[in-house]
Amino acid sequence: MPQNLKENGNKLKVCIGLSGGVDSSVAALLLKQAGYDVFALFMQNWHDASATLHGDCEWEEDRFVAEMVARKIGIPFYFVDLSEEYRKRVVDYMFDEYSKGRTPNPDVLCNREIKFDAFMKCALKLGADMVATGHYCRKEVIEGEDGPVYRILAGSDPNKDQSYFLCQLTQEQLSKALFPIGDIIKPEVRRIAHEADLPSADKKDSQGICFVGKVDLPTFLQQKLKPSEGDVVEVFDAYYENDPQYAFISNTLSSVLASDAVELKMITDYVSEDKAVPVQPTDCPFSMEKVALLSDGQLLRLSQPVRYDIRFETETYRSGRKHIKKTRYKENPYGKIVGKHEGAQFYTIGQRKGLNIGGHKDSIFVIETDVESNVIYVGEGHGHKGLSRSCLRVAPEDIHWIREDLKMAMGEIRRYKVRIRYRQPLQQASVIMRANGLYILFDVPQRGITPGQFAVWYDEDEMIGSGVI
Fold first, then answer.
1. pTM
2. CATH number, position 202
């Protein structure tokens, strides 16, 4: 944490975003013990409890606990209602993204638009010099050519690192941000809370959508997005044997391999975030010289997923003793209709829960959602070809540099570690800057690359930039 005294001798005034959870409570306690002039600000961002699984207003209990924590620590407590801002800048964005078949990350949006914007502005109006939160991440300051440069680093606790959620913050926002527990592991945070007898010491970690709570997502989305029954189509392996896009991806990746001795991988090795194969310090399988020769058009196509267009023809047949005339779908070597769903916009790539499709040895995963035709495409098993991709693109307008002094030049290629979702182990990748976007080419294929989510690139444990997939 920075020096707690200003140059004129007055204490730095810090606003702690007190949520009622143990993390922000301990952050507040540490700030107070460090000698800062601390006050707490609790924000309400959600009113409607109709979609929450608990069916009650969790924020009321959170506010009650937060107020008790502030009283226990001995700091002033304030309340602000930012629910209108939250609805406009986070929830409406969520609905719009899901309606387009994309999967947004509300927690990233909440930090960028609410905690470190609307909330921060409110705190500054109340006289704060800095704003602190209970995020598990670290901040450092270095001297740049034009003044101080703020670095954001992964939290010291690898199991709780939350830097990913702050991937859209700006230098200006970081200049006034404090993360008091970033260098502490979670068990130690609990210990400190118990030792200080804080009311939130045993409170469970919050789950679900930021400041809304744990929700049934389809029920939440149905507030604005109407259900519409459609087909669930299982895609067979044979589809990829004749698909021109899959052949293009395979041929293009093969053409940029570092040598003939390197084997091209098209399917990911890891199964889930909890059972992932750790990143190994192996050489990049691709030649950067060969990658640099790819045209913008080739990279654009390489980053695009396989699209599915499986048509089913019907045939009539007679059934039973009375030979009743019935209709059925003809067998198709590329796929089969295996079920129904209530709206393609309610599903996301990589999802396996909520499909209610039986009769398979392995799990069924969503590999594509077609909102226009209202069809969900699925595949069986973690090793299904439709679940893995090696390249993604971030549009020029969606590229965000936390370290603005490290922006990439056109045509430049850098090696970074990248994650495409929270808690995913960092993956080795080549980041390529072109006029039509920033491309990320992974050393190994990635499971469930999802449009609307954020890709974040790191230099070791420092977050450098991010962008919407």
1. 0.91
2. 3.40.50.620
